[in-house]
Amino acid sequence: MTAPDSTRLPPLARAALDRAAAERSTTGLVEAARADAASRVLVLADDAAPLASPAELWWVSPADVPDGAEWAFLGRDDDGAAALAAVLPAGSQEPFGAPAGWAGLRKVGGVLSDFDAGAFVEALSLGRWLLDAPFCPACGARTAITDAGWSRVCPSCSRQHFPRTDPAVIVAITSAHDPDRLLLGSNALWGAHRYSCFAGFVEAGESLEASVRREVEEESGIAVGDVTYRGSQAWPYPRSLMLGFLASSLDDAAARADGEEIAEVRWFTRDEIGSALAGEGDVVLPGRASIAHRLIADWHAEEP
User: Three-state DSSP class for 254?
Assistant: First the structure.
């Protein structure tokens, strides 16, 4: 596996928020930040956050947050003010109006500033764990939140638990013979004409390289040669770390859908990808917040 040849980061990897991790063990950190009017709070209802404009999050003061939220310390902004997440219970409606409404990470993550994009994916990843994992997996007792939202301690068996991250590979496949062709697949659960890269979770005891080769062959029938790492980003649906790759086909004619997860595979020309990225024609590609979009767009922009 070769090293990345691009310095461009995927959209949700462009974090500019100082996580200030050394502060998390400070007793009463969240409570002190909630009492400080200068603190900034990102409120989440399901996977949506409030917007100040179509490309900017709307941060509120602690006093504006409704009751019932789980709180966590995200870090500090450039002025040293605390940045907090306030995560409302699953199924919550939008608790207040926002200047540009509310939107999910998938929709706006690709157009936010580095600070907002990093904060949104951090808050959503951490917030989902706070809501979904209240009980100790070892003994079943309800745990207590510690480290300003970043860990849980079981009062029964004293085990400490942390947010879980599941690694997954995501791969765009280049042609064995034609530098202007890229293989993408259409998931069986999607509508017609929607295509993306091939992806799957890394299995127990498996390397990233082995996972790329296994997933690609399982889903597309393609055995790959060179594998090039292109970057990573968190994807909190529900708790993935997506590791992006380009892989070169050894035999283009072997391409075929697995018929279960993947309904169709298709070789696209560079011109066809360019048209789809521009929103022309009937082919739908992944949204700008996803690393799949970055893999496809970077391939299209490179000289063959």
Answer: helix
The whole-angstrom separation of Cα 171 and Cα 15 is: 23
State how far the Cα of 277 lies from the Cα of 200, in Å rounded to an integer.
Answer: 24
The dihedral region occupied by 281, where left means phi > 0, alpha psi between -120 and 50, and beta the remainder, is left
| Each residue's pLDDT tens digit, 190-246 | 988 999 999 999 999 999 999 999 999 999 999 999 999 999 999 999 899 999 999
Q: What is the pTM of this model?
A: 0.92
Closest CA to 116 of 39, 50, 200: 50
Q: How many CA atoms are closer than 13 Å to the CA of 46, on its beta-carbon side?
A: 9
Burial of 67 (0-12, 13-18, 19+ CB in 10 A): exposed
Tokens describing residue 211: 């996972």
String of DSSP letters for 125-177: HHHHHHHH--B-TTT-PBPEEEGGGTEEE-TTT--EE----EEEEEEEEE-SS
Cross-strand bridge partners of residue 228: 2, 246
3-class DSSP state for residue 56?
Answer: strand
Q: Cis omega before residue 163 (within 30°)? A: no
For residue 266, the cross-strand partners are: 184
Q: Which of 16, 222, 211, 33 lies closest to 120, judged by CA?
A: 16
**CB burial readout 3-19, b (16+ within 10 A) else e:** eeeeeebbbbbbbebeb
Q: What is the DSSP pairing of strand 56-57 with strand 240-249?
A: unpaired
Q: Which long-range contacts (CB under 8 A, 24 or more apart) does 60-67 make?
A: 61/37, 62/33, 62/34, 62/35, 62/36, 62/37, 63/37, 64/96, 65/41, 66/95, 66/96
Q: List, in order, residues 6 or more apart from 119 with CB less than 8 Å away.
A: 15, 17, 42, 57, 74, 75, 83
Contact 63, 22 (CB under 8 A): no
